[in-house]
Design goal:
This protein is mainly α. 52% of the residues lie in helices and 5% in strands. The chain has helices at 5-10, 15-36, 59-64, 70-73, 85-102, 104-108, 113-120, 123-134, 142-153, 164-187, 200-211, 222-230, 240-247, 255-269, 279-285, 306-316, 333-336, 340-355, 365-370, and strands at 49-51, 162-163, 198-199, 237-238, 362-363, 378-381, 388-390.
């Protein structure tokens, strides 16, 4: 017996109602998936990547090592200046606190262990607060920071693109500002009366107490000779700019410092003591050290290659007397003492290789925003294993 027509109608839903039911179910599924999906940050900051501050924890040791020769200096990690001046300011505050703790006795006299420990007891808490700040997107948004900095980098010409040269110039400006800050802080140890100048006598006493008679290279002659070379105006004192050159000779344009560095290289390799290098002294002591770095055509087979060494020796020996003098060494000095200009170029090259997605050799603001970690150094924990990675900053 067939069911009544009214029962069939009651058990059947109209097409519009079915459609609404499906739409409602689909909407609920979308909401459910969205609630469990990881939130995409506007500039790609994932929860496993956390920006870290990198304060230089031992400024005095670092500055005394600034005069290190290129090959010896490469054995220590170079402290890259932050890309963002706002990050640099936070790091400087942390460094200043640590520096004052390390030098409390020299600055304030007495033992001071209790006072300096009290002064520094909140240092780690301060570090955590600052790192929380730069990882809070509402207070420190990387995309907004890059937008603000971009027109300051894109200046020659201001065409909406950042080139390798522009980024290198920017990195170098940040590095030199970083140097000046550390040098001014270091100068406080010796400028007791606060007149902005330091004599060699004022420099010598606390320096000997902290590191002894020898410099970072182990040469007792370095200090006074280097000090005098840094005294550009010859008044017997170093002002802030001269003191900065003194601590960072590889970045100085002072001709007396450049000449001193050349003489230092000659001294270390001049076996017969005639004040210049013959070919054997050049080949066995210097040739391999000037290989590479900025030479795009550098070939590892050139290391220890006597034919290549003779060619280089001949190019350096401008007067063709068979020797290399201190003045003839100047063209390769930047390969022996790696300067901030070298590192600024390395940082810029690395950043462009990471962020230049269309491979045109320059960066738009969008490319920089999409790849912020090419500019903002980070340490982050891998999702799969306990592995930390540190990038250029």
């Amino acid at each position: 017996m067939a069911p009544p027509a009214s029962a069939v109608a009651a058990g059947r839903k109209s097409p519009p109602i079915v459609l609404l039911v499906y739409v409602a179910i689909a909407f609920l599924l979308v909401l459910l998936l969205a609630s469990y999906s990881p939130r995409l940050q506007p500039h790609g900051r994932g929860h496993h990547r956390r920006l870290k501050l990198h304060p230089k924890t031992s400024p005095s040791a670092a500055s005394s090592g600034a005069a290190s020769r290129g090959d010896e200096g490469n054995n220590h990690h170079h402290h890259h200046a932050p890309f963002d001046p706002a990050i640099a300011e936070l790091e400087h505050r942390l460094e200043d606190k640590e520096w004052e703790r390390e030098h409390y006795r020299l600055l304030h006299g007495g033992d001071g262990d209790g006072e300096k420990d009290e002064h520094m007891k909140e240092w780690e808490e301060f570090l955590k607060e600052e790192e929380d700040l730069i990882n809070d997107e509402d207070r420190f948004n990387l995309a907004d920071r890059i937008r603000a900095l971009f027109p300051k980098i894109d200046v020659a010409p201001q065409d909406g693109f950042v080139t390798l040269e522009e980024l290198t110039r920017w990195n170098l400006e940040q590095a030199r500002a970083d140097q000046l800050h550390r040098s001014a802080r270091e100068m406080e140890l010796y400028d007791k009366n606060g007149d902005g100048i330091v004599s060699f006598g004022a420099f010598q006493a606390p320096r000997q107490e902290s590191i002894g008679d020898r410099n970072s290279l182990g040469f007792p002659w370095w200090k006074e000779e280097h000090f005098n070379a840094s005294d550009a105006n010859g008044d017997g004192f170093l002002n802030k700019a001269e003191f900065n050159d003194f601590l960072n000779p590889s970045d100085s344009d002072n001709p007396k410092i450049i000449n001193l560095l050349c003489r230092q290289e000659i001294r270390q390799r001049d076996k017969d003591g005639d004040g210049k290098l013959n070919f054997d002294e050049f080949f066995h002591g210097l040739h391999d050290h000037i290989h590479g770095y900025d030479d795009e055509n550098a070939d590892i087979s050139h290391i220890g290659n006597i034919t290549v060494a003779k060619e280089r020796f001949s190019k350096l020996d401008k007067d063709n007397d068979g020797f290399i003098s201190e003045h003839e060494l100047e063209p390769v000095l930047d390969k022996l003492y790696l300067s901030e200009r070298y590192y600024a170029g390395q940082q810029a090259t690395h950043a462009i290789s990471e962020a230049d997605k269309d491979h045109d050799g320059r960066l738009t603001v969008e490319e920089m925003i999409e790849n912020p970690y090419a500019f903002y150094g980070s340490m982050y924990l891998s999702d799969d294993e306990d592995y930390f990675h540190e990038e250029f900053r």
